[in-house]
Amino acid sequence: MVPLILSGGAGTRLWPVSRRAHPKPFMQLADGQSLAEKTWLRARSVAGDAPILTVTSRDYYFYTRDLYEKLGAGPDQSRFLLEPMGRNTAPAIALAALWVRDHVGPGASMLVMPADHLIRDTAAFEEAVRAAHELAGQGQLATFGMHPTHPETGFGYIRQGPAIEGTQGYQVDAFVEKPDLDTAKAYLASGDYFWNSGMFCFTAEVLLAAMAEHAPEVLAAAEVTWQATATEATPVELPAEPFSRCPSISIDYAVMENAGNAAVVPGDFGWSDIGSWKAISELYQSDDAGNRVRGKAVLVDSRGCFVQGDQRLVAAVGLEDVVIVDTGDAVLVAHRDQAQDVGQVVRQLTELEDEAAIYHQTVHRPWGSYTILEDAEDCKVKRLVVKPGQVLSLQLHHQRAEHWTVVQGTAKVRLGDEEFLLEANQSTYIPVETLHRLENPGTEDVHLIEVQTGAYFGEDDIERFEDIYGRA
Amino acid sequence: MVPLILSGGAGTRLWPVSRRAHPKPFMQLADGQSLAEKTWLRARSVAGDAPILTVTSRDYYFYTRDLYEKLGAGPDQSRFLLEPMGRNTAPAIALAALWVRDHVGPGASMLVMPADHLIRDTAAFEEAVRAAHELAGQGQLATFGMHPTHPETGFGYIRQGPAIEGTQGYQVDAFVEKPDLDTAKAYLASGDYFWNSGMFCFTAEVLLAAMAEHAPEVLAAAEVTWQATATEATPVELPAEPFSRCPSISIDYAVMENAGNAAVVPGDFGWSDIGSWKAISELYQSDDAGNRVRGKAVLVDSRGCFVQGDQRLVAAVGLEDVVIVDTGDAVLVAHRDQAQDVGQVVRQLTELEDEAAIYHQTVHRPWGSYTILEDAEDCKVKRLVVKPGQVLSLQLHHQRAEHWTVVQGTAKVRLGDEEFLLEANQSTYIPVETLHRLENPGTEDVHLIEVQTGAYFGEDDIERFEDIYGRA
């Protein structure tokens, strides 16, 4: 069985922690792990030594790869397909199925898992996966249906049909769209409906056959894209032309809703799509007043509140059911029952072309990350973290000079034609228009403080000459 | 008439903007001016060319003096008495009266004004001051009574007696303590009560006579302190011994409540003690939804909220009547109707020995200020602003090195035995245990970024050898 992790999507309802440049799967939860890490570990536990395939974008590739490697992924254990643009789940799954067909075999089954869902009971999950695997082997398109616990209007539902003999699954009678509240209550009361979790299990050949029948345009575009791709490498960078020809459509809509061989495996494994700050808050223990706190906070006469702090102190006075989420450059204060409306903030910021819609104060790069400490008229100050063995591009700036002070590790610096080492408590100066390159030749992270001087500090004032990450 | 400005007190209910190191009088209001500036301008307008006397502490002296100078105070126009510790208003006013007696004349009248009150209608205020001045000339201890607009329980009240013929004042029938709500409602309904504004007008000799009668201990300690003081200088630094012998007591309790010659001048000049964030918020224009915003904010489905932002973005979703105040190192979220409980946050922080109870991210010094940009294990990064003509102490650090990059202005640096100029985009390095001094010899502010390296960055790792501000 090949686990397929789908990692995309912005998670705007979890702003300001989830932003497009570093979205929901990478958010650290209560236990310090991210959803992406948890998903990879789950995949690992069902896949044994088989490779795990992740479909994501180039923007998230380096960060995701490093995350997996930290969890012990060997070079053959994780493979990537990189989409040049988002086209919803059907094209991603089609290309993954082609990959599995050609690299593992058409009869191999695939376990499709979004990277941003939480599953609390791993043992129950694995049991459900075994049941789904069996159904997949019988030519079924298996879904995982969650027993609803409340009349949720944010999910699609699955109506169950007759049991499939000798398995733990049921035929799918119908997939139904997100209901209104009254309909959701009726579904809940009837006992015949599951939440559609967006996870699937099928063999590559059965999925491709269903696509050929129900979504031939998607399959055709995926096939052309697949043929245009160098198939041996990882990551596989899917070319924008012809990938962009794929219609943007979900696997549910393109295939599952029309297929006669859809099955549903009931799952009670503590699934959550972590769709809002309310869901995040429920991962924390509450105190006697129903408050849940992460970080440094002082609460006075407040009840039912959730505080997620960062560096700064958060004080709450006389509040009830309020969510406060603080980050370096933005703070969100929302009523708990309107936590699902946080996406509207991101929409407004996007309209205002405010970068806080997309970027954090800490920006991840293939070589590490930088954090903006000061962004003023007269200077910009950053902390740069360069990972061991990583190298920034050979570059110059036309409008800014840079003053570097190393505070951890030993950096190798190229400056003009010179090259030298810079240790902690040593500094150097990069004049305007001077070719330079920063490298970490050691085995520990290098941290340095960069003070930029000049009159313009935009990220676009960078001319790259060589770049090991293909950005030159 | 000598205006006497009393500038002390923490204003903890306006945390996190007001903190002990930079309290309420220095907060910038909606119009960009601080209460201290407004008070000085008010004093100026009633004093003509007479000196204005300010009683404050050494901690606030340099900042206050600079503030007045920016408003045009000449060297003879502002005088300071610096208290070594707070002893409430009676000792401060006693010492000011002794100053007035000896430097202006015993018959001169004094107008006592707290530095942290707001008065919106200056013309009406000046008219009330003229009336109070007249009463003072007749040997009265004049107070300013505000017509109550609501049953406030946070103020003391004054019950008016018979009118004093030929003046706009009334005899004071009684001073009454802060009432409970029902009592406050009864006061409001009766029409016989004023709010006690804490402003006064009397001649030095009448005040000193009343003190001799009603608070002889306060007067005795003040007299001894006054005699121990070099009287010609400004600022006058009152010696802790014997000043500490003064009982800590308010002028109301020590004198006014017991005096037979207390008068009250009704004032309707838009007075407010700006006692909470609710009061601050009311200085801002509200939009159609009753929201008031200063700084960068996105509000979704929120009503009656007040946002005071700083550098960062504040987003509010689904809130009603919530106050959000953001600063560099702390954010306060409070229900508007519990804004008066914000002081409890400061009390909790004080118990936790959290510096956010006292200090801001920006700390004012006699020579300018510094702002902490990063405070980490491996380094501390600050922006230093040195005012023209100012000089930091000649100093060294035992545990940290410093890397300075000038980003505005030209600094003069002494490093060991050398001395040199450092211009914008130039940097230098101060090794551990090396004598150094930073100076601004120019006419514009010097800004520099300081990167401290080492393992300990406490403010106490500083050995001062020479200091023009007397801190060596």
Automatic annotation (TrEMBL), chains A, B:
Keywords, ordered alphabetically: GTP-binding, Isomerase, Nucleotide-binding, Nucleotidyltransferase, Transferase
InterPro entries recorded: GMPP_N (IPR049577), Man1P_GuaTrfase/Man6P_Isoase (IPR006375), Man6P_isomerase-2_C (IPR001538), ManC/GMP-like_b-helix (IPR054566), Mannose-6P_isomerase_type2 (IPR051161), NTP_transferase_dom (IPR005835), Nucleotide-diphossugar_trans (IPR029044), RmlC-like_jellyroll (IPR014710)
Pathway assigned to this chain's UniProt record: Nucleotide-sugar biosynthesis; GDP-alpha-D-mannose biosynthesis; GDP-alpha-D-mannose from alpha-D-mannose 1-phosphate (GTP route): step 1/1
Cross-referenced Gene3D superfamilies: Jelly Rolls, Spore Coat Polysaccharide Biosynthesis Protein SpsA, Chain A
Membrane spanning residue stretches: none
Coiled coil: none
Domain Nucleotidyl transferase: 3-285
Pfam families listed in its UniProt record: ManC_GMP_beta-helix, MannoseP_isomer, NTP_transferase
GO biological process, one term: polysaccharide biosynthetic process
Enzyme Commission number(s) of this protein: 2.7.7.13
Domain Mannose-6-phosphate isomerase type II C-terminal: 355-467
Family named by the database record: Belongs to the mannose-6-phosphate isomerase type 2 family.
Protein's name according to its UniProt entry: mannose-1-phosphate guanylyltransferase
Species, as recorded: Marinihelvus fidelis
